[in-house]
Request: fold
Amino acid sequence: MVVFLSIISGFSLPIFTRIFSERVFFIKSGKIRYFTASTLGFLLWLILVKGSSIPFDNIWDILCGILIILCAVWSNYWLSNFGGGFRMNMLLKIAEQERPITLEEWMGLFGGLGMEAFLEDRLKTILVPGKIVRENEGVITLTRGRGFFWGWVMKILYHLLQGSRRE
Amino acid sequence: MAPESFWVGFVGFGVYTVIYLLLLRSKLSSGWFVLQVLTGLLVFITSAGLGFWLVDRFSFFYALSIFGFFWFCFFFVTGIFYVSVSVGIIHYLNAQPGKSSTTEELYQECIRKPFIHRVHFMEKLGAIAHSEQGYLITDKGKLTVRRINGLQNLLGLKSRGYYSINPDQE
Reply:
């Protein structure tokens, strides 16, 4: 029974994400929208499980339910890539063109502002605020501490996951 | 029995990880995504089959939930590693002397190169065609775009790929 209720709650996550992208309940930030939808999905699960008079003494059923909900949270995260993924954006942009375009034109169209804005966005929203890199007159440097740590993690992952397969 | 069913899922995930890492080192040309999905499915089906055979009152969903959870965690780490541009920037900087680079170099190595890589991939899939005039979407590509648009409309997913900039307000 808990498994069934967990699967239902799991399917509610993309529905909540949809609701928060509608004008009335619109949440601008993708991260907050995703987090709110996940939290509501988890609350729905709690309400359904508590309200269905299922005894909470079977810890394994509860553990299984939580794991199913967490799987749904992951799936919902990956679904969000259909909205803003690199390749998705590239394909959507070239689909709008009626004549053949060069590689440079295509890169200029990406996301509406081009790939240079894309690099700036990644640097200024993740790497610089995360204190992983610092920017000084057009030179980007890994910071001592966090930057070196993540560089070391990347090196290990590169060997473990065969970095030559990176896209 | 419940704990044993969880163990089946957990051990199955361990076996899957080892097989996946070994397959990455083989000469298989399949992409990481296909390898992960197919290996995951095959290993889980085998684990569940063994569970039904060997474990008394085996619970399929217990095994699936723990296998699925760890599979998604692993998929998250590998997915980020293989496709993230930010991760590419960190990796590139780490490999440079002095662990630094100019913005122009970063653009060429971490933005332009992955872009061209993806263009080749789309060309290989038949989604775009390349001629002397440039690149144009094919009928197969248009079908994919229709499906993506349908999914985006259904789930309310629309994004330009930037985290901080909204081009509509520029």
The helical segments of chain A are 2-19, 30-51, 59-79, 81-84, 86-95, 103-109, 115-127, 146-160. The mean pLDDT of chain A is 84. The CA atoms of residues 35 and 73 of chain A lie 9 Å apart.
